[in-house]
Every structure is written in C-alpha cells, then in structure tokens.
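S.,

Sequence below, as promised.
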Amino acid sequence: VCGVPFENSLTLRNFFPQGISGRARIVGPADWKIEPQTIDLGLSAGEEAKLPFTVTLPFDAVSGQRPVRIEFDLGADRHHQFTVYRTLRVGSDDLKIEASSRLNEQGDLEVTQVVTNRDPEPVSFKCSLFAPDRRRMMSQVIELRSDTDTKIYRLRNGQELIGRELWLRAEEIGGQRTLNFHFTAGK
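The prediction came back faster than expected:
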C-alpha cells in the first residue's frame, strides 16, 4: 500500500571463518523512504541474522519487480567492500497493470491498457492515463475475476508524444491498492 510503511528484513549469514563487523546500506529507487537506510552489523563466524527495515512507497510507485542494492562495508580478516543486487516486488503477483502504445493510421496514439487479475476474488479499479501536456483520461475496471481487462485510450496528434513518458495509474475501488505503470510512448 503506497504511503504506508511495510516491514521487511535483510537476512545475512557470515561465511567468513571469523567474526565480522561493519555496515550495510540499502539503496532503492530515489523516491522510496527506507528506514534505517544504513544498518550496523556484527556477526560471529557462521552466525545468521535478520536485520529489520521498513520501506514507505510514494503514491506513484511503479508496480512490479524493483531494483534494490545493498552496499556492504565490512571488517573481517581485512577490509571488504562489495555490493549485492536484489529486487523487491511492489504489488502482488496475482494483480498487474501493463501498457503499450502505437500510432494508428489517423495519427492518434493508441495506448492499450491491460489489467490482469489472477485471483478469483473480484477487483474494481478507477484507471487514469497521464500524458504530458494532455488532459487525464479515465476508465474503470469493474468486478474483474481471474481474467484480463483491456482498454484502449486514443490521444490525438500522437506523434507529439512519441519518446515521452506516460503514466497509467489504477486505484482500487473500495480498497487500498494502487498499481502504477510508467512507459515511453512508441510508434
């Protein structure tokens, strides 16, 4: 849920033959709030630890797998600095939004929005398409159960939007979930 802190943890195991101490710095997308961003750690040889942290997502957080890197600065037999790359999933695997675009024969940019629900529980969304220098366009997905819903938005003078970033946002009706999808308009 965007704007609400959710708890996570960094699970570590010391594979060095002696104890280690140092810091791990968690770096996500620039608009995420990660607390604490830097975690002090000390582990004896073979010890495993779960180090908690929270992530608060902005209201326009992009759904799907998002990159996170963890920068380590450790002291063991000598000084070690290295980076580990991981991903955090924003949203759930059973619900997603995607988009594609193309210019039609009339020169309009056609944006195809696809909302997929893999859960038998029905979902409803109020959807918005934001394009630079254009009015917001809206649609609704109502009571979608274990299926895909496709909507097409048409934007006049589409050539003006080629190469520019567009944003689809789906806000759950009667719920807290928000799906965001940013993409570059293509021909």
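The radius of gyration is 21 Å.

Coffee later?
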